[in-house]
Specification:
By secondary structure, this protein is an alpha+beta fold. The protein has 3 helices and 2 strands. It has one domain. The chain has a two-stranded antiparallel ribbon. It starts with 18 loop residues before the first strand and ends with a helix. The relative contact order is 0.22.
Length: 104
């Protein structure tokens, strides 16, 4: 079994909802810039980790370990509990939207 591990530094970015606009009377949809930049960043780190090895065929397992910043508005007690792993993030972005740019 082949294992590829890579880290994307910084705060995880959730997949943004596609935007729709009109241009010259035609409707078009596009991916928000922040999402597109993050998808490109994930892709670049993945390509570097693969080191020009051909893509894997068949089913794959993807493990995402996302580290979120502790909100500055939290009390010191609550911040320490979050850092110790006793409190998990329950606000946006949610996991399914964090994983989408990683698997695009």
């Amino acid at each position: 079994m082949r294992v590829v591990i890579f880290t994307v530094p910084g705060q995880p970015v959730a997949k943004g909802r596609a935007r729709i606009s009109t241009f010259g009377g035609h409707v078009r949809s596009y991916t928000p810039e922040k999402t597109r930049r993050y998808e490109n960043q994930v892709s670049a780190y993945a390509a570097e980790a693969m080191r020009n090895v051909p893509p894997m065929g068949g089913p794959v397992e993807v493990v995402v370990d996302a580290h979120m910043l502790v909100p500055k508005s939290w009390s010191i007690k609550k911040r320490f509990a979050a850092i110790a792993g006793q409190i998990k993030p329950t606000t946006k972005p949610d996991l399914d939207n964090i994983v989408k740019p990683s698997t695009a």
